[in-house]
Amino acid sequence: MKKKKILTLFFIAQIIIVNILSLFPDFVEKYYSNGLYPYIAATSRAIFGIFGFSIGDIIYGIVIIMIIRWLWRKRKTWRKQWKVNLLTVGSGLSIFYFLFYFLWAVNYHRVPLNEKMGIDKKYTPEELISFTKKLIDKTNALQLQIMHNDSLKVVTPYSVEEIYTLSPNGYKELSKQFSYFNFKRESLKSSLISTPLSYMGFGGYLNPFTNEAQVNYNLPLYNLPTTSCHEMSHQLGYASESEANFIGFMTSIKNKDIYFQYSGYSFALKYCLRSIKKIDEDKMESLLPLINKGVLLNFEESDHFREQYQSFIETFFKYFYDNYLKLNHQKDGLETYSKFVGLLVNYYSDKDL
User: Fold this and answer.
1) DSSP states of 215-278 as a string?
2) Of 215, 223, 294, 225, whose CA–CA distance to 254 is shortest?
3) Which residue has the higher pLDDT, 315 or 140?
4) What is the C-alpha separation between 269 and 340, in angstroms, rounded?
5) Which of the residues 13, 197, 287, 297 could staple to 153 if both were Cys, CB 3.0 to 4.6 A apart?
């Protein structure tokens, strides 16, 4: 009982400590994200990366079964033993919270990537439209180069495992320019719960307890390279979804493989079109005729995938994840994913795509 009380009090203390840390991003960047965390991540990937399947998914399954079993056993004790049961819950949450933040989640409070790279995030509608037209030209050129017919969708010739093998190459190229994107000991795997992830509306996730990058292998193959690179960025400690999207894009287009480049450019193009639609739907519609039919067919492939798995489950989990992101200082919630458009527009405003 005494241990449970101490752990429950420690849970409250941890919440206070994490919120204080959020006020000192430079401290977090220096001593955690670039200090302690790389050793934690490298060790986790060295241990769990040797397995060809997801250890993290199995751990989650075991924990969920244990929680359900405990709730069932205690179902008749809540009136008489509510204090003991609440302390048990509090101590369990304390352990979970400690491992979650110690092993990875303190990265939510590091220095924002746009400050680190000196990138502004604000842009005008005109700048967005101009950049989107550049993306259209680049995506069209790659689609035509691959298929030799502008009306055919790109069909990626690689297996899922081959995509995982090729994914680190983009990080190797990008790290020549920015050393902090250097990636070692990859642990990129297909999630054992890919079908549930599809219904939840997620392309993958990082398991913070094992540092395995979990990818939803049900995704259309042309999407998979950028999704894999996105999840790998979380392994480097970039917790923000907008930053992960930006890094996923950069490492995809830096990859010498043309299918990775197409995945990256088409990914960014779709996000930019969505952003224009929010500002001026007619303007977005006017841009569609500029896009090769083959590219639009790939977009339709993604839309069909989402429609295939659309259900109330996605609504529930996206509501949960939206609030989870907001609790972790990503104030825009799920809209954070789209915020990487500002990074794109400003970073590439004076650079060739």
Assistant:
1) E-TTS-TTTHHHHHHHHHHHHTT---HHHHHHHHHHHHHHSS-HHHHHHHHHHHHHHHHHHHHH
2) 225
3) 140
4) 12
5) 297
Question: Mean pLDDT, to the nearest integer, of 111-139?
Answer: 92
Q: Are 276 and 341 a contacting pair, CB within 8 Å?
A: no
Instruction: Give the Cα separation of 210 and 98 in Å (integer).
Output: 14
Give the phi and the psi of residue 199 in degrees, each rounded to 5.
-70, -30
Q: Please report, for the chain, the start and end positions of each structural domain, with discontinuous segments joined by +.
A: 2-109, 115-347
In this prediction, residue 185 has a pLDDT band, given cuts at 50, 70 and 90, of confident
Helix (H, G, I), strand (E, B) or coil at 135: helix
Q: Count CB atoms within 10 A of the CB of residue 124.
A: 10
What's the pTM value of the predicted model, to 2 decimals?
0.91
Q: By C-alpha distance, which of 194, 208, 207, 214 is closest to 309?
A: 194
**Which two structure tokens, joined as six digits, stand for 152?**
């055919």
Q: What are the residue ranges of helices labelled H in 104-215?
A: 113-117, 125-147, 160-166, 168-175, 194-200
Q: Which residue has the tokens 């830096």?
A: 254
Residues 6 or more apart whose CB falls under 8 angstroms from that of 303 comprise: none
Q: What backbone phi and psi angles, to 5 degrees, belong to 212?
A: -90, 130
Enter the DSSP assignment of 347.
Answer: H
331 or 41: which carries more pLDDT confidence?
Answer: 41
pLDDT in the model for residue 285: 94
Tell me the per-residue pLDDT of 277-299, one tens digit each, with 9 for 90 and over.
988 889 999 999 999 999 999 99
pLDDT digits (tens, 9 = 90+) for 1-39: 678 888 888 999 999 999 999 999 999 999 999 999 999
Q: Tell me the two tokens of residue 176.
A: 């020549």
pLDDT top residue among 315 and 78: 78
Are residues 207 and 56 in contact, defined by beta-carbon separation less than 8 angstroms?
yes
Q: Which residue has the tokens 């101490």?
A: 6
What is the C-alpha separation between 258 and 135, in angstroms, rounded?
15
- Helix, strand or coil, per DSSP, at residue 209: coil
